Amino acid sequence: MTGLDCWSDHLAYPDLKPKILEDYTSSYGGGDEFNKGKRVDLVLIEEKASGQSLIQDLARAHVQVRGYNPGKLDKVQRVHLISNIVAAGRVYLPESTKKKGYVRDWVEPFVQQVCSFPETSHDDYVDTMSQALRYLRDA
After folding, report:
1. DSSP structural state of residue 100
2. pTM (2 decimals)?
3. What is the three-class DSSP state of 45?
4. Which residues does 70 contact at the CB level (< 8 Å), separation at least 6?
């Protein structure tokens, strides 16, 4: 998941690296000769399982990548650590270009999962959000 897009495919390691490289080299927004758009600044990867190898491979590919160790807290505790950031309105959700006051289509699954946590069968977006906000808060 990036801050300007999100996806929730469950990819095997050989397919994950090309997907991350594709997102890392893409530009979002802009598109004219004066505004080339936004690019990914940093890829944050959890330092567990295949994450270690992925961090090393992406670093070799000159991707700005950092490992993240969430520590021993469970997911609910990690969300509590960043809930004040969300409550203060410091999280931006891109607005739809077609329906003013609504989020973009690709944001809707993210919002649904975050708002139904911890009573949801999937929590990948929640986990990603809590890790990213905690990293940004502490950086």
Report:
1. T
2. 0.83
3. strand
4. 46, 78, 131, 134
